[in-house]
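STRUCTURE:
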């Protein structure tokens, strides 16, 4: 079977034709109405973005090119090729395969994923200049700030930006250099992230790249977790399920917006990462761990439901958030949370923190439901991830959002390649002042 770029190149003219036909046929049709509350309330529920890679249903959650998380767990290639004695579905999928799926809409073969693994491995080397840049950053910075700065520093290697600057690009080959930059950037992330981790939290000494490892295991290895297969499996799961959540969430939307001005992938991802670093979004995974550790410090792990309820009450009534719960779209427990919950059950069932978390996910939604303003009391993707990472050795919780960022790069960048292929225009909605909204209905 053909390699990813060949498959993509074949698909582009066909998809462009479908896109143009749809626009011609339905371009003038009215899709819906907008209320003032929506305009003033974060545009919640307004469907006005085009995004092909994934969809999010309030009840069923995310579908990656039409596949649910349990389906991906079953169908995406794993590290070991299935054989008669191998229980393939027991292994976690490789995020490399999700990259193929999100770009092409096709499930990759084992061989096609092997090609990506190899390519990312080869393209994952970074310059000493970049390492030195990271190592000179102020250790007081948050790891997400370091990540954004590192990617912005690396923007000088963008092929797209360089060729555009030399007037060597035209609209028909924008996608190709966006793709090349995207692969370079994704391939370099394990080294960049590991350098940040070791500089900020360890002795700063780099751990040499090891040939032949998959993207997730390479990251763990370079962070200093050599040969810890359960952690590798957790990272494969984590880096797969966090990759995409349709086009309206903050990080993807931010990268999409910057990309619409023809920003190259490095500019787009710097923006996505700064968006992800907000506590209502990706930073919530570190906040969950902090919130739990504060509780444990006072009560320990063996607690009553009443103690958990009181902790929730104190948090909410003092105007703070219960991190890891609630969602702008989802109205049921997040399927990504459920996947990690099952992971915890499988590998860490008797662990005291995981047991406490399971108790909390039972008690907290019942308590949050009593606060009438909260639209969704259910656990989201960030609810469990930190505790699993913590128990498998990554205890520096400020680093958790960096892991989210590595994964989300897959969604943002596959979107960007298709934006360039479709030739989507600059994004430019309109805003209005309060007088406009007041006047709109005054005589009606
Ligand atoms: N704890 C306390 N209050 C909450 C929570 C929560 N977990 N979730 C929502 N609310 C409040 C919210 O602050 C708002 O308050 P107010 O009436 O004072 O404005 C009210 O409930 C209504 O908000 P919703 O319509 O339920 O939620 P919204 O769509 O505005 O925001 C989140 C969604 C995810 C930002 C919100 O649920 C939240 O802040 N959760 C905690 C932080 C978190 O876990 N974020 C991670 C989301 C997933 N991710 O990785 O991005
Ligand atoms: C995400 O994965 O981006 C979060 O669940 C936030 C969202 O979808 O709004």
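SEQUENCE:
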């Amino acid at each position: 079977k053909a390699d990813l770029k060949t498959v993509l190149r074949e698909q582009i003219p066909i998809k462009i034709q479908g896109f143009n036909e749809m626009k011609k046929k339905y371009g003038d049709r009215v899709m819906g109405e907008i209320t003032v509350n929506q305009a003033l309330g974060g545009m919640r529920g307004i469907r006005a973005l085009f995004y092909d890679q994934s969809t999010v249903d309030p009840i069923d959650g995310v579908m990656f090119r039409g596949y649910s998380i349990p389906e991906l767990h079953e169908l995406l290639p794993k590290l070991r090729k299935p054989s008669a004695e191998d229980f393939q579905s027991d292994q976690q999928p490789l995020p490399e395969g999700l990259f193929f799926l999100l770009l092409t809409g096709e499930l990759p073969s084992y061989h096609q994923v092997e090609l990506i693994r190899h390519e990312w491995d080869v393209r994952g080397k970074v310059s000493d200049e970049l390492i030195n840049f990271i190592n000179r950053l102020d250790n007081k910075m948050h790891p997400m700030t370091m990540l954004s700065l590192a990617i912005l520093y690396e923007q000088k290697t963008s092929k797209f930006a360089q060729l555009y600057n030399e007037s060597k690009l035209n609209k028909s080959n924008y996608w190709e250099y966006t793709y090349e930059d995207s692969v370079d950037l994704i391939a370099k992330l394990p080294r960049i992230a590991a350098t940040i981790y070791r500089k900020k939290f360890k002795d700063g000494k780099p751990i040499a790249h090891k040939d032949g490892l998959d993207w997730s295991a390479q990251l763990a290895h370079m962070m200093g977790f050599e040969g810890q297969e359960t952690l590798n499996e957790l990272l494969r799961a984590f880096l797969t399920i966090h990759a995409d959540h349709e086009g309206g969430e903050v990080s993807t939307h931010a990268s999409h917006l910057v990309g619409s001005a023809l920003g190259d992938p490095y500019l787009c991802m710097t923006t996505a990462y700064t968006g992800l670093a907000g506590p209502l979004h990706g930073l919530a995974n570190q906040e969950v761990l902090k919130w739990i550790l504060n509780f444990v410090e006072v009560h320990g792990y063996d607690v009553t439901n009443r103690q958990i309820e009181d902790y929730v009450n104190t948090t909410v009534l003092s105007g703070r958030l219960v991190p890891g719960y609630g969602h702008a779209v989802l109205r049921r427990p997040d399927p990504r949370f459920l996947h990690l919950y099952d992971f915890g059950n499988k590998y860490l069932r008797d662990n005291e923190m995981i047991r406490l978390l399971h108790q909390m996910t039972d008690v907290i939604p019942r308590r949050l439901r009593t606060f009438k303003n909260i639209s969704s009391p259910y656990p989201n993707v960030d609810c469990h991830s930190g505790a699993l990472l913590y128990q498998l050795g990554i205890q520096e919780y400020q680093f958790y959002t960096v892991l989210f960022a590595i994964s989300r790069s897959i969604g943002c960048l596959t979107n960007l390649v298709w934006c360039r292929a479709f030739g989507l225009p600059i994004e430019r909605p309109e805003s209005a002042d309060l007088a406009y909204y007041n006047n709109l209905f005054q005589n009606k």
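REMARK: The radius of gyration is 22 Å.
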